[in-house]
Design a protein that fits this description.
The structure holds 2 protein chains of 2 kinds. Chain A is mostly helical. Helices cover about 40% and strands about 0% of the residues of chain A. Chain A has 9 helices and 1 strand. In chain A, α8 crosses α9. Chain B folds into 2 domains: about 100 residues, Cytochrome Bc1 Complex, Chain D, domain 2; about 120 residues, Orthogonal Bundle (Cytochrome Bc1 Complex, Chain D, domain 2). In chain B, about 45% of the residues lie in helices and about 10% in strands. Chain B is built from 11 helices and 8 strands. Chain B has a 3-stranded mixed sheet with strand order 6-5-8. A two-stranded antiparallel sheet of chain B has the order 1-2. Chain B has a two-stranded antiparallel sheet with strand order 3-4. Chain B starts with a helix and ends with a strand. The chains are: A mainly alpha, B mainly alpha. The interface between A and B is large, with 50 and 46 residues.
């Protein structure tokens, strides 16, 4: 008469272990990783944004998010004058997924990996869906100074606008140069860009 | 793919007695006809398993993968798990490495010199993984989840899954966090959800058609971290084992159908 009861009791008697804190995880990673190429160990040190987003599983309280977003906005260095560069160069940057990995050569121009997550030009069918579709982005919003500034800032530091966005801080991390970011602004906002067909 | 097949076939031929060669060629032709390149790696893995190596010049035939010395049947289906002799949780690759060190007397440095191969030259670890995993085909995945260190390992794996890090602020969940998402055209399974984790853990390790390589779960963790722009995780480290343990625990109960084929 050994029913299912002992089995159920056994299953209930297996509690999950306590999850380690972000600081503990970071310590374990520092022990378990090694630097390779340009990918140095400092990259494992979480900054405030990474820590808060880890702790909150990407859903921080609004007040905290707003305060940290304001801090992040201060990191954005806006160039003088028009922020809209060459959309053709921007398209090449959006296509490229190179840069910052341990097998990318340090100092070589990186890409923005934009198509990995976003739809942009309708000609490119192989696009990801982690981020929203940006097709027709400029057509819907024009290309005035304000929207140029928003797009430039968003690419430079996505966390200034949405603290736990999955988008990398492409300017702040040194992935893209100001010139490259301007070319991406062009890709999104120039009426001649295929994005706005 | 042809190169790999040829390379594996040559390695296979050199490993068998001359009188068996024609029989082996026949077997090879049949496998190609059946379109299952993973089987070539399984055969190469069998050769390597039985081959005396290292300072002690012994094979891995006495390696205990958790079911007893030399027992291969069903061993992969119960990994990762805690091993008392090593006093730590191990996945398949870390256990194979342990056997290379303890049984064969090989140094960690030598045994891990080339753990990820190329299309032209597969790595020993990959072929061994194929061979061992294949002998759990059709069995339910049942990783160790009861020992305190097993619980700790799964909890660490879960924490790592959501831990944002690296130059691009990614966690595993940045890509594998919401259902129905893609990178370019590649679908992204959400590996903390059992129904999405099950088919994944049921098919690794696997032959990858696009790169003509046999790829393992340690390779998968390594290449995800590369794309996350972190430094490189050590092979078979607690970090990579914990992640593999977490996703296997999530997908437990799946019937093992690998080594499979991937895009």
């Amino acid at each position: 008469m050994k029913s299912a009861i002992p089995l159920l009791a056994l299953m209930a008697a297996v509690p999950a272990a306590a999850e380690p804190t972000p600081a503990e995880v970071q310590k374990i990673m520092q022990r378990d990783f090694h630097p390779r190429g340009q990918a140095t160990m400092e990259r494992l040190a979480q900054d405030g944004v990474q820590r808060v987003c880890t702790e909150a599983h990407d859903k921080p309280p609004a007040e905290m998010a707003n305060a940290l977003q304001a801090d992040q906005l201060k990191t954005v260095v806006f160039p003088q004058g028009s922020l809209m560069g060459d959309w053709k160069r921007g398209e090449a940057i959006a296509q490229s997924g190179r840069g910052l990995t341990w097998n990318d050569k340090a100092g070589e121009p990186a890409g923005g990996s934009c198509y990995n997550c976003h739809q942009l030009s309708p000609k490119e069918l192989s696009h990801g869906t982690i981020g929203p579709s940006l097709r027709g982005f400029g057509k819907a919003r024009g290309n005035g100074a304000e929207i140029q500034r928003y797009v430039y800032g968003k690419i430079y530091n996505a966390k200034a606008y949405n603290l736990c966005s999955q988008m990398p801080r492409l300017g702040l991390s040194g992935t893209l140069t100001p010139e490259q970011i301007k070319d991406l602004v062009g890709l999104l906002l120039d009426p001649a860009s295929p994005v706005n067909e | 793919m042809k190169l790999v097949a040829l390379g594996a076939a040559l390695a296979l031929m050199s490993a068998v007695q001359a009188q068996d060669a024609s029989k082996e060629i026949q077997r090879y032709r049949q496998m190609i006809a059946e379109g299952s390149p993973a089987e070539l790696f399984e055969l190469e893995g069998e050769t390597l398993w039985n081959k005396p190596q290292g300072p002690k010049n012994v094979s891995l035939e006495k390696c205990d993968l958790g079911r007893g010395a030399g027992v291969l049947k069903g061993a992969y289906a119960r990994l990762p798990r805690y091993f008392k002799d090593a006093d730590r949780v191990m996945d398949l690759e870390s256990r194979l490495l342990y056997c290379m060190e303890t049984l064969q007397g090989r140094s960690r440095e030598e045994a891990t010199k080339r753990v990820f191969g190329s299309a032209d030259r597969p790595a020993e670890m990959e072929s061994l993984s194929a061979y061992v995993a294949a002998q759990s085909r059709g069995m339910k995945l049942d990783p160790g989840l009861t020992h305190p260190k097993e619980k700790e390992s799964v909890a660490l794996g879960r924490a790592l899954y959501f831990h944002r890090t690296g130059a691009w602020d990614f966690s595993c969940a940045s890509c594998h966090g919401d259902e129905g998402k893609r990178i370019r055209m590649q679908d992204l399974p959400v590996l903390y959800k059992p129904e999405q984790a099950r088919p994944v853990v049921a098919s690794w390790p696997a032959y990858r058609v696009s790169t003509s390589q046999f790829i393992t779960l340690q390779w998968r963790m390594n290449d995800c971290y590369r794309q996350m722009r972190t430094p490189e995780p050590n092979f078979a480290s607690e970090t990579t084992v914990a992640l593999i343990h977490f996703i296997t625990a999530t997908g437990k109960g799946a019937s093992y159908a690998g080594p499979g084929n991937k895009r």
